[in-house]
Amino acid sequence: MSQQELIALSLDKRDILGKSVKHLRKQGILPAVIHDHGKDSIIVMGSYSDIYRAYKHAGKHHPIELSVGSKKFTALIKDADFNPKHNTLTHVVFNAVNANQTVEAEIPVHIVGDSPAAKAGLMVIHTLSHVDVESVPSKLPDELTVDGEKLVELGDKLTVADIVVPEGVIIMTEPEHIVAVVEETKAQLSEESEEATEETASEDAEAAKPEATKEEK
User: Fold this and answer.
1) Nearest to 106, CA basis, from 152, 196, 34, 173
2) Burial 7-17 (b: 16+ CB within 10 A, else e)
3) What integer pLDDT is reported at residue 38 of this predicted model?
């Protein structure tokens, strides 16, 4: 998806509030709200399937073109609440943004390229899935990447400083924050532990032998 492309979503104003919104959800309608630069929030609703599809494509980083009657907004999804039991959306908060002003957003981070460490049987642990960035909405990337080929040996790390940053994007997350690290697998750790235990047992057994008498020597 091009970072210039906007996802369009049509919403309607909503008068139903509080516990009554559960009736909307049963009808396949999702409650939402639009925050607009310190102005009064706009209480809205829309088709569950349409909003869910927009959320899956946009996440919290891709601009969405909202239509509410005759009004139009460029917005980012700020929060998305889910039902923990069914993993279904229950409410969405949109933040209206100015196309010419910088905004903050969460951008997914992916490791690209084959890691020599992984090929060698080591384990690559991903410790950071998103970073916070600042940019004008039109330049927000769908994802950021780091080069997995730099992970070669045990203890090698990728940090935020290794992320490829597009022009016009500033990463707000600390540069030393670890994105991925190379560790031994559980099987390797278990094997080393067994070897260490065997060595200790052997040393203990040797130390437990009685000293030879002069006659025996």
Assistant:
1) 173
2) eebebeebeee
3) 77
Which part of the chain has CATH 2.170.120.20?
105-188
The C-alpha atoms of residue 210 and residue 206 are separated, in whole angstroms, by: 9
Element holding 107 (H helix, E strand): strand 103-112
Q: What is the mean pLDDT of each run of 10 residues along the chain (217 residues)?
A: 71 89 91 90 95 93 93 94 91 92 93 92 93 93 94 95 95 96 75 55 57 53
CATH class of the structural domain 7-97: mainly beta
Distance, in Å, from the CA atom of 147 to the CA atom of 163, rounded to the nearest integer, reads 8
Q: Which CATH number fits domain 105-188: 3.40.50.720, 2.60.40.10, 2.170.120.20, 3.40.309.10?
A: 2.170.120.20
User: In the numeric block, which tokens belong to residue 48?
Assistant: 């569950």
Confirm if 113 and 54 have CB atoms less than 8 A apart: no
For 20-56, write each residue's pLDDT tens digit.
888 899 999 999 999 988 788 999 999 999 999 999 9
